[in-house]
Design goal:
604 residues, alpha/beta, ABC transporter transmembrane region fold, Rossmann fold, 3 domains, six-stranded mixed β-sheet, 10 strands
């Protein structure tokens, strides 16, 4: 298997350098198939040689037609006609061979780049994914991958053949005719290309702005549709429509401005072409009238003009599309250039599976330097034991889980497993050893089987069913009309909170981790469902090193040690009985929750 080139470096600020650097980053993917590329280029040049030779044969046909010599009329033109037909066929043959050979280069390059971008996005930090807009991001990737095929197609199938043909035609005009023909052709080309480049460069900024507005409108729409229920709860359909329309109006204005600039470009190109063609035909007609050129020469010049005029007429369109494709690819490569905040250190080694102790050694952490979250947090979870962390919202409890998974790196102290700083471990092996049942279980819009098996995709059906039984899901699945193939909906919205939590427990059990995290796993459930789920959580934790992050104290009574976290600091620690006897913050929280539960039962 070919190795994909490494991720690119960040792009510089200059627009022109952007294009060149984007091309430089794309070339290694193509050069991985260098023999196909070279063969395709050979076919391209051969096709253009055949195409340019056709008018020369046509000239000979016209000059060779002499009705007073019947034998010559039969023999000479017949041979030329055969050559004419063979060259016409050769042009198509070499063109199709080029496309057949190069198709794999294009598609494999798109596939490899798409995989690299996809993998890089998954490797980026949680911070990036919390700040991104899904709609705009997916649109950038979609346009970027599509533009790779477009760029290759435009350059190899249109731009490069056009310039090869122009070079061949200029050479023939210089050799066979007076220099004025070549001069007119060169001047026309120079004016056309200069005008096209300058106007198109101006238009690129307009296209870039239109793309950004398109992404913004798309992101707005997707964000609204993802939060469909929230929109309905607050009766804000009209508000969302107005917000979407604001973005659409900006995009519409940019598109109208873009179209006006396109019309200006097209008119300028047409005027340059018209002047050049008129000058060439004037010189050819004058040559025939003066006897310097034959009728065949006039036909030859006219044929060359037609052959150049047609691709040249599309050169501006192709250049615009190439610039747009480069802009889109640049945005996608920009994703590859995004800094990976958390990366494996050189020489990182895999974590050995087995009983694991977890230690937070004087950990300090802040998502933003101006707002510290954890202060000198220090505790240890012995292998096979359970430690619970409780505290008010915003005290930093869930941050502990994110640090243990190494979604972020600590700014002070260390998180250790079996005495090893997790920064010295490979992230794959670290996360393979940890399982989590989160507060808000997000499921894929797929079947129950898929969502449970996601805990270990290579698990057998028997192992998946065993995990479902352990999570008390078997009866629920049996009652569903489609059983295991029942689809759970977007983010699992077709399931209740308790059902989603059971699915989360099942797939975590299937993963069979050495370390378990329960992050507010029952806080969103009612008391009856919480008791049912708690039994399965206790069973799942048996024999495993477990960190329980909880708001409801009734779920942590049996923990080996309970830590009370307040504003990022551990203010109390001990067993449930010890903390109640101490009469501190934990005892106050316990008393308050008992009062709340009594009020709920009385109201019920």
């Amino acid at each position: 298997m070919r190795r994909s080139p490494s991720g690119p470096a960040p792009l510089p600020a200059s627009g022109e350098r952007h294009d060149w650097q984007t091309i430089q980053k794309l070339l290694p993917y193509l050069w991985a198939y260098k023999w196909r590329v070279l063969f395709a280029l050979t076919c391209l040049i051969s096709a253009k040689f055949a195409n340019v030779t056709v008018p020369l044969i046509f000239k000979q046909l016209v000059d060779g037609l002499d009705i007073s010599r019947s034998q010559a009329f039969i023999v000479v033109p017949a041979a030329l006609l055969v050559a004419y037909g063979a060259l016409r066929f050769s042009t198509s043959l070499f063109t199709e061979l080029r496309e057949i050979v190069f198709a794999r280069v294009t598609q494999e390059s798109v596939r490899e780049i798409s995989l690299q971008v996809f993998g890089h996005l998954h490797a980026l930090s949680l911070r990036f994914h919390l700040e991104r807009q899904t709609g705009g991001l997916t649109r950038d990737i979609e346009r970027g991958t599509r533009s790779i095929g477009s760029l290759i197609s435009y350059t190899l199938y249109s731009i490069l053949p056009t310039f090869v043909e122009i070079g061949l035609v200029l050479a023939i005009l210089l050799v066979k005719y007076e220099p004025s023909f070549a001069i007119i052709t060169v001047v026309t080309l120079a004016l056309y290309i200069t005008f096209t480049f300058k106007v198109t460069n101006w238009r690129t900024a307009l296209r870039r702005q239109a793309n950004e507005l398109d992404s913004a409108a798309n992101a707005r729409a997707i964000d609204s549709l993802i939060n469909f229920e929230t929109v309905k709860y607050f009766n804000n359909e009209a508000f969302e429509t107005r917000r979407y329309d604001v973005e659409l109006k900006k995009w519409t204005a940019a598109q109208i401005k873009n179209q006006k600039s396109l019309s200006f470009l097209n008119m300028g190109q047409a005027a340059i072409i018209a002047v050049g063609v008129t000058a060439m035909m004037w010189r050819a007609a004058d040559g025939v009238a003066a006897g310097r050129m034959t009728l065949g020469d006039l036909v030859l010049v006219n044929a060359f003009l037609i052959q150049l005029y047609i691709p040249l007429n599309f050169l501006g369109v192709l250049y615009r599309e190439i610039r747009q494709a480069l802009t889109d690819i640049e945005r996608m490569f920009g994703l590859l250039a995004t800094h990976r905040e958390v990366a494996d250190t050189p020489g990182a080694h895999a974590l050995t599976r087995g009983p694991a102790s977890v230690s937070f050694d004087d950990v300090n952490f802040a998502y933003d330097p101006s707002r510290p979250i954890l202060h000198d947090v220090d505790f240890t979870i012995p292998a096979g034991k359970t430690v619970a962390v409780v505290g008010h919202s915003g005290s930093g409890k869930s941050t502990l889980a994110r640090l243990l998974f190494r979604f972020y790196d600590v700014q002070g102290g260390a998180v250790r497993i079996n005495g090893q700083d997790i920064r010295s471990l490979t992230q794959d092996s670290l996360r393979a050893a940890i399982g989590i049942v989160p507060q808000d279980t997000v499921l894929f819009n797929d079947t129950l089987l898929y969502n449970i098996q996601y805990g270990r995709p290579d698990a057998s059906r028997e192992e998946v069913e065993a995990a479902a039984r352990a999570a008390q899901l078997e009866d629920f699945i049996a009652r569903l009309p489609d059983g295991w193939q029942s689809r759970v909906g977007e983010r699992g919205l077709k399931l209740s909170g308790g059902e989603k939590q059971r699915v989360a427990i099942a797939r975590t059990l299937l993963k069979n981790p050495d370390i378990l995290i329960f992050d507010e796993a029952t806080s969103a459930l009612d008391s009856k469902t919480e008791k049912a789920i708690q039994t399965q959580l206790d069973a799942a934790a048996r024999g495993r090193t477990t960190l329980v992050i909880a708001h409801r104290l009734s779920t942590v009574m049996n923990a080996d040690e309970i830590l009370v976290l307040d504003q990022g600091r551990i203010v109390e620690r001990g067993s449930h009985a010890e903390l109640l006897a101490h009469g501190g913050a934990y005892a106050q929280m316990w008393a308050l929750q008992l009062e709340e539960r009594a009020a709920e039962e009385e109201a019920a």
